[in-house]
């Protein structure tokens, strides 16, 4: 593996792609610290710290994670990639129910470009709407426990906020597309990952403060607990990698066709059905629903909402149970949206493919649906366990939730998934130029430099 990393710098094209990717990610992180005009960032950060401490988690925590802490300071990149993610999910759901979009999705590269264009338009519209309501929300001191966040409220501030935050979201979207086209890896996913990884220094500092190696009398974390945390982190990461990479291979046989004197087809291949088909989407959906009462309760003083938010405190049995059930439900729901066994069976039939022992057409679709339903269950259970694991670790080991969040949840799944995808792309560049990848597959003769 170390040799593979050293080989990266030997390939000019790959070296240029990685350098460009790092530069664009650095630009994104710089923008996450440029404040929005007219907003007192210190008071806003104080407010977010207060509601996070009292409510045990809100939707702002999810937004803050995806934006790399920009939402708590309301910088020009405060909305982050959330409008783009929301627009992508909306377009994807609409594609399954609107025939025109479904036909567009089947038109190949041209249809794909059109859907991407619709996603961009949706991102700008969502960003403008969200930023306008954020501006209205910021102008009311009563919602911020008496803190005066905006010094000069009014339409000038609202329009400036909408323009600033929407432009920031558009620029982030442009950065992601530049990484996708000229860099390495998935652009938007790498931007999300960069925001999550930016929290690592704060988490390490909190661990250091709890350990207090130079002041044993102040230590709240012993060395054996720290070793246990490291071992647990390794085990969880390995488990996430195994589930992320896990798939069921359905064998496909293509019939032979004789055209003139040539024989076409006859080869065997497979359809990979992933164990974790929906990825992190079920966790995001479940978090959005279960944290919604706590978010509203932090903004509106209402006894019913306060009581509902109190009963759904993070780490409690009721919270974990509802959270896990929501994740299992959305795992099946999103898998049904993204994987259509009827379309897969029809495409196989058109190209002369069939599953050995299964009739083409309807029986193949039922066979694929049966298998997908079965393998989704362990994937959903694993997602539920990973999602509630940080709350359990935080409560049992008495460590801050920010530290425990790296032992599971959305952040860890995104980091592992994006890193695996990026490493695969780098490895494909290495193998294409006759270098060995990260895992040895035997000696290759004759290197081309």
Short descriptors:
Preprotein translocase SecY subunit, 6% strand, mainly alpha, single chain, disordered C terminus, 3-stranded antiparallel beta sheet, 2 domains, globular
Number of domains: 2
Which structural category do the helix and sheet elements fall into? mainly alpha
Side by side, the strands of the main sheet go 4-1-5
Q: Would you report the number of β strands?
A: 5
Helix share, percent:
55-70%
Major sheet attributes? 3 strands, antiparallel
Q: What's the total helix number? A: 20
Would you mind describing this structure in some detail?
This protein is mainly α and 449 residues long. The chain folds into two domains: 1-188, Preprotein translocase SecY subunit (Orthogonal Bundle), CATH 1.10.3370; 199-407, SecY subunit domain (Preprotein translocase SecY subunit, Orthogonal Bundle). It has 20 helices and five strands. It has helices at 2-8, 12-31, 41-55, 59-66, 70-73, 82-97, 99-105, 109-138, 155-182, 187-197, 200-211, 223-245, 281-290, 292-299, 303-311, 317-338, 341-350, 362-397, 401-404, 409-432; strands at residues 247-254, 256-259, 262-265, 268-274, 353-354. The longest helix is centred in the last third of the chain and has 36 residues, at 362-397. Residues 442-449 have low confidence and may be disordered.
